[in-house]
């Protein structure tokens, strides 16, 4: 977003170096972040969707930038649009960790409920003479609730 304000080659070189390092860190950590947020079992699907979205952006970005430069006579609008897009994508990533934690906790609670519902009821009988059906019925009712 700030590229149009750089008037010298040195300023552009410093900006490009910082931007390149930041993008390299993201590319290096992308799969680790996806495993942390989505889980290892969904890594291939998540990675495929991310790469598809990047491909669509790369495919559409150049014609849109060219159209903006033709309309306004310079590349400033294209750089502003690119900067705003980067900023919005970064802002949209802020709640991802909290959403992932919430979904994992919800899945664990659901699994715990299912496990508790499927747990077998164990009835111990000392002898056939002391068997009381009323007691067995009440203990089964208590274990269900």
Automatic annotation (TrEMBL):
One of its GO terms (molecular function) is monocarboxylic acid transmembrane transporter activity. The chain crosses the membrane at residues 12-33, 45-65, 77-96. The keyword NAD does not apply. Keywords: Membrane, Transmembrane, Transmembrane helix. InterPro entries: MFS, MFS_trans_sf, Proton-linked_MCT. It holds the Pfam family MFS_1. It comes from the Eukaryota. PANTHER family: MONOCARBOXYLATE TRANSPORTER (PTHR11360), SD10469P (PTHR11360:SF238). This is Monocarboxylate transporter. It comes from Elysia crispata (lettuce slug).
